[in-house]
Design goal:
This protein is mainly alpha-helical. The chain is built from 18 helices and no strands.
Length: 475
């Protein structure tokens, strides 16, 4: 018995001092994630042979090898970029808190900057080149993270203005480059969803890794440590893009000297296409509503769980890791979900139908906490926590499905312009959602988030029954 007690004490020294519910959550999510990844790998083991392009067996095998090399090259860059981005995001608040500056003003400046520059940046991305734009993003991030070393409020404010610009580039230039390069190399359209699913899985994995690496750097170098690590990672990504990526544009490079192909025309064409094509307009509204709801939820989950006074306290790192595992599982399960849905849909509407299901599920996941807080919020901690995990699972699903729909409907030549136009209403919703967290009661905020997800689902539902107007190029 003495040996047993001593062994248990020894084991306890190596385990984090977290409450039982947190350990159970983390262990359960870890096991579930491993099971899901193994199951998906088993289900997709024959997918390469099932999704071949027309041609001989040898040609198909060559095409698959080329696609995997292309996809892996893109994903490696994407993972490095997202790891650097997550490392900043997890510690930016604590860094500014240590500086004693106006944190709300800095964050709102970043959102406003993103909204102001969004309509114009995309046209520049398409006109001057997606690879160059990705390199500009890396340079901006290096400058921004260098500025974070300053405690001067005006310097930090300037960094947030640049941050709004770089965020728009992050969520437009890289995806535009990948989609256009995928088609330029002649890969089947159906393979795009594989890349989007892989990026969703990778995004969740990088978030988990970022929390650990950033904490280690903070322990060794102080609050600025994660930002110094982000600089090193961004330099690595810049070199990878510069060396291994080819350039592509929103127009034929040979036509660049034509006066009609001016930046102004690219800007106007992007807006006209967005407004005149109902499918593109709806995709933009859906993205704004769903991602705006997601960002509002991100602002809310920590104070909400703290308000429920969980037994033993709230180890935010453990819960964050569990939520990111839910994103990873969602990304992994997207291809099987789409394959299953395709058996019950017609006219190639499996992506639209999958998105409708995901947004509806997300709306339910946020409606339940609203009802809980409206009646007996103090006694429903476990229910709220499960709903939060479900919401992040939906985030993991709608990231690849939204990317698939964007690649389906948005013309290659206007990818950058239109993706940045989408960020104008998105940033507006995020600003409103951030403000709402300060003035509305908790149950009203979650109901608002649920309504946004529901509106996204209803808009997505209209696309299931509308005519498909896939456009890859604009003359």
């Amino acid at each position: 018995m003495a040996i047993s007690i001593e062994s248990n004490s020894l084991l306890a020294n190596f385990l984090p001092d977290w409450p039982v519910w947190a350990m159970n959550l983390l262990i359960g999510m870890s096991v579930l994630t491993v099971i899901v990844l193994i199951l998906v790998q088993f289900l997709s083991s024959g997918s390469d042979s099932a999704e071949k392009s027309n041609g001989s067996e040898a040609e198909n095998q060559k095409k698959v090898r080329e696609f995997k090399a292309f996809r892996n090259n893109y994903i490696m860059v994407y993972l490095v970029i997202m790891l650097a981005d997550w490392m900043q995001g997890t510690h930016m608040y604590t860094l500014y808190l240590s500086y004693g500056v106006n944190i709300s003003a800095l964050f709102l400046t970043g959102f406003f900057s993103g909204a102001v520059f969004a309509p114009f940046l995309g046209s520049a991305v398409d006109k001057f080149g997606r690879k160059k734009s990705c390199i500009v993003y890396c340079v901006l991030e290096i400058i921004i993270n260098t500025l974070e070393h300053s405690t001067d409020f005006r310097t930090l404010l300037f960094g947030r203005v640049l941050g709004g610009i770089s965020t728009n580039l992050l969520f437009s230039a890289f995806e535009s480059w990948m989609t256009s390069e995928h088609r330029k190399k002649g890969f089947p359209e159906s393979w795009l969803s594989q890349t989007y699913a892989a990026t969703s899985i990778g995004n969740g994995a990088m978030a988990i890794l970022a929390g650990i690496v950033a904490q280690l750097l903070e322990d060794q170098l102080g609050h600025i440590g994660p930002f110094q690590g982000a600089i090193a990672l961004t330099v690595l990504a810049l070199v990878m893009v510069a060396v291994s990526w080819e350039e592509n544009y929103g127009e034929d490079k040979s036509e660049n000297n034509d006066a009609t192909n001016s930046l102004y025309k690219q800007f106007i064409t992007g807006w006209k296409t967005t407004i005149s094509d109902s499918n593109i307009l709806r995709i933009g509204l859906i993205q704004s509503l769903s991602e705006g709801a997601m960002y509002t939820f991100v602002f809310m989950w920590v104070p909400t769980l703290l308000s429920l006074d969980p037994p033993g306290g709230l180890p935010t790192g453990a819960v964050f890791s569990a939520l990111m595992m839910a994103i990873t599982m969602g990304g992994a399960l997207f291809p099987p979900l789409q394959n299953m849905v395709s058996k019950f849909t017609r006219d190639g509407k499996e992506a639209e139908t999958s998105a409708f299901i995901v947004y509806t599920l997300a709306a339910v996941s946020m409606a339940v906490p609203s009802l809980c807080f409206g009646s007996a919020g103090a006694s429903c901690f476990e229910t709220v926590l499960i709903c939060f995990v479900l919401c992040e699972f939906c985030v993991g699903l709608f990231m690849p499905v939204a990317g698939t729909l964007r690649s389906k409907y948005i013309p290659d030549s206007l990818q950058g312009a239109i993706l940045n136009i989408f960020r104008l209403p998105l940033n507006s919703i995020v600003v409103f959602g951030t403000y709402a967290t300060d003035v509305l009661e908790t149950h009203n905020i979650f109901m608002l988030v649920s309504v946004w997800f529901l509106c996204a689902a209803l808009l997505q539902g209209t696309m299931i029954f509308s005519e498909s107007s896939t456009k890859k190029k604009v003359a």
